[in-house]
Amino acid sequence: MANTETIFAPSAAPLDIAVLVLPRASILEVASVLDPMRNANRQMRREAFRWRVVTPDGAAAPLTCGIELPSAGPLASAAGAELLMVISGYDQAEVATRSLITGLSRMAPRFRAIGGVDAGPWVLARAGLLNGHRATVHWEDLEDFASAYPSIDVVADRYVISGNRLTAGGAVPAADMMLHLIGARCGVGVAGRVADSFLYEQHADATRPQRPGLLPGARDRRVSAALTLMGQALDDPLPLEQIARHLGLGTRRLEQIFRDGLGQGPGAAYLELRLQAARRMMSDTDHSIQEIALRTGFSDRSSFSRAYRRLFGHPPRHARTGRKNDRHSNV
Q1: Phi/psi at 157 (nearest 5 deg)?
Q2: Number of folded domains in the chain?
Q3: How sure is the predictor about 1, in pLDDT bands with cuts at 50, 70 and 90?
Q4: Do the domain assignments include residue 232?
Q5: CA dist 292 → 31, 235, 242, 283, 300 (Å)
Q6: Going by DSSP bridges, is the β-strand pair 113-118/134-135 parallel, antiparallel, or unpaired?
Q7: Phi, psi at 232, each rounded to 5°
Q8: Model's pTM, two decimal places?
Q9: Where are the alpha helices (DSSP H) in the chain?
Q10: Rounded to whole angstroms, how far apart are CA atoms 1 and 154?
Q11: Which CATH number covers residue 104?
């Protein structure tokens, strides 16, 4: 049985980490986990962290950028590590095979802690390793993840530490989480120097939402706040009057600040948010077109299809013809 003491405690002993990288993960996610530890060792002038990369079958893992990541061996090679980090991105349901899930379940008690990045929480959940824990996942998957695993307390935080379970919503939140780990074990000064070396001005609190609502060009905080409200009500769109009232504005002023900040009115921006969400669901899920229409606030499939075609230039079903190449890169 693994040592149950937390890994988030000051220690002069090296922390031994196995990083399980699944095919079609993002190189930025891998770097966000590994490079902060590498830099911490440099700052400390000793081996505060040691790690090995493993893959499901021991072969090099093909990443989304086309690079193949060398592996120290299959999952069994993670034996002896204190922390197992699972990094997954595209097509986790395919690349995390039944034998891998079984192996994770069997090996889990050997580790002091287990974590998942981006789609990694899906893999952990399938292995039953997040039951009864708080956890997060990439923001595009939050609703489906919560629906699929009601025994998990799913939150929209950037990263979550729940007992000996760690989850991060993507590459940058993973870096935030690793900086937190470095600060807990080696001191906040070391974590600060690691962040400084990457010109990383401010790492975010764990509980900060993954999506603050600020889109490119939305420099006005009122626009950002309005977009956040819109993003929280895609299935049942809020009247613009209600959004304006919530912000202490009139509807004409809301229209003006949107046009000044985004070059489009709030109604058009709201519709685009809904349709962008629909496009992600079309490429990333097996939901029917009718269900996606309802989830993004359209009363029927035909009105959804017309709006979708106007924005993207093709009907919704075309998003599924190249879905393997169109899933989020999570950078």
Answers
A1: -65, 160
A2: 2
A3: very low
A4: yes
A5: 34, 9, 25, 11, 10
A6: unpaired
A7: -85, -5
A8: 0.73
A9: 27-44, 92-95, 98-107, 120-126, 142-148, 171-186, 188-197, 221-231, 240-246, 251-262, 266-284, 289-295, 301-312
A10: 27
A11: 3.40.50.880
